[in-house]
Design goal:
alpha/beta; binds acetoacetyl-coenzyme A; 9-stranded mixed β-sheet; 3-stranded mixed β-sheet; Peroxisomal Thiolase, Chain A, domain 1; 2 domains
């Protein structure tokens, strides 16, 4: 039985900042941010947006009355959750009018969460033939104004419908994983922003990639010349490129140049959105499918990394005709119709937070799903019917 991603939805907030303007405001040579880090734009969520509203926006793009009735598993992977007890998935029941006879919960392991959810969904479908699973990666990457990590912020959500006979990508049974207790990145419960040992986190990322890459090739007796495409977790676009460079000496020049060309296609959207944390690998997949020169039945090696740290490399296969199952025009329109805001507007939004008994003015809401009020410290959400 083939199992995999049948549909892919993507949401990113409507506002963004220009990375050159951010560099100028921080008195940094722009080339450091655009070339050294590899970013052009950064998504800025509105204060009424969070992981629940973004998850709802992304999932709403791929749900129909027909596929909803077969969903029995709903997993949200996030590391910027809004509640320490209640999962984001439960809010989606009402917002998306999902069936109640489902297992719904949230998964956390930094940027690895969505991969854990996807692998769990694959196993679930294998034991529940005919059923579907909704796996959503939703995050707001926040390091803080004037921090070293500020240029690597971002926000958005990826929704994946997992089923038998998928239309987009088949998940194979080949995977290797690794977990180590590492202090490269963390966010204590009292803090809205993450803490990172930046350079150390880069080293750990590279170390995990190289170890997993070697383990995978050895375990599955893979000739690296036969790899079609390598996709990476992309905290910022230079990071995946640095990891890719570590295998340059393992392959022919022609193969390496081809892998680089495919990698460039996988980072096009990330360059203009920023870090989606756990959704980043899957945004890379989406970007590659939309922009890349994808071969029939092309094989993918997916590198997932979540600080702290858990990593996994698994393989997947692109299904021919995948483009019919992705709303390519809708995604391009969403990206093109975003609004650039100034650095001072971004700073104001960054520091705005709704408090208990605040009610959001609906006239300020641009999306379909939004945080409508906070009452007795409970966050309540609404949908604007379109
Ligand atoms: N033109 C071109 N390049 C320039 C330049 C210029 N004018 N000036 C500097 N650069 C280059 C530097 O040479 C450097 O390149 P290399 O990495 O190839 O050496 C690059 O720009 C960055 O410069 P610095 O290392 O000096 O940058 P920094 O100290 O300000 O920090 C960072 C960069 C560590 C990534 C920081 O932004 C950070 O801490 N980010 C958050 C942590 C993070 O994203 N870690 C990634 C791995 S962990 C993970 O993946 C999980 C996750 O999602 C967070």
């Amino acid at each position: 039985m083939s199992i995999g991603i049948d549909k892919l939805g993507f949401y990113t907030p409507k506002n963004y900042i220009d990375i050159v303007e951010l560099a100028e405001a921080r008195d940094v040579e722009p080339g450091k941010f655009t070339i050294g880090i590899g970013q052009d734009k950064q998504a800025v969520p509105n204060p009424y947006e969070d992981v629940v509203t973004m998850a709802a926006e992304a999932a709403n793009q791929i749900l129909t009355e027909d596929n909803k009735k077969d969903i029995e598993l709903v997993i949200v992977g996030t590391e910027s959750s809004i509640d320490e007890s209640k999962s984001s998935s439960t809010f989606l029941m009402d917002l998306l009018d999902l069936p109640n006879e489902v297992r719904a919960f949230e998964i956390k392991q930094a940027c690895y969460g969505a991969t854990a959810g996807l692998q769990m969904a694959k196993d679930f479908i294998a034991t529940h033939p005919g059923k579907k699973a909704l796996v959503i990666a939703s995050d707001i990457a926040k390091y803080g104004i004037k921090t070293a990590g500020e240029v690597t912020q971002g926000a958005g959500a990826i929704a994946m419908l997992v089923s038998e006979n998928p239309q987009i990508v088949e998940l194979e049974d080949k995977s290797v994983y690794l977990t180590k207790n590492v202090g490269d990145f963390w966010r204590p419960t009292f803090s809205k922003t993450a803490f990172a040992r930046g350079k150390y986190s880069n080293e750990i990322y590279m170390d995990f990639f190289k170890t997993l890459f070697d383990n995978y090739n050895q375990k599955f007796d893979q000739d690296v010349e036969n790899i079609d495409t390598l996709l990476f977790h992309i905290p910022y676009t230079k990071m995946g490129r640095k990891a890719l460079n570590t295998i340059e000496s393992d392959v022919s020049e022609e193969k390496f140049n081809d892998l680089v060309e495919r990698y460039q296609k996988s980072i096009e959207i990330s360059r203009s959105v920023g870090n989606l944390y756990t959704g980043s690998l899957y945004l890379g997949l989406l970007s590659y499918l939309i922009n890349g020169d994808v071969k029939d039945n092309e094989s993918l090696m997916m590198f997932s990394y979540g600080s702290g740290a858990v990593g996994e490399i698994y393989s997947a296969k692109v299904v021919s005709g995948f483009e019919k199952a992705i709303d390519i025009e809708g995604i391009k329109n969403m990206l093109d119709s975003r609004k650039k805001i100034s650095i001072s507007e971004y700073e104001t939004i960054f520091n705005t937070e709704y408090k208990n008994y605040d009610v959001v003015n609906i006239d300020t809401v641009e999306g379909e799903f939004y945080l409508s009020e906070i009452t007795e410290n409970e966050r309540l959400y609404s949908r604007i019917s379109k």
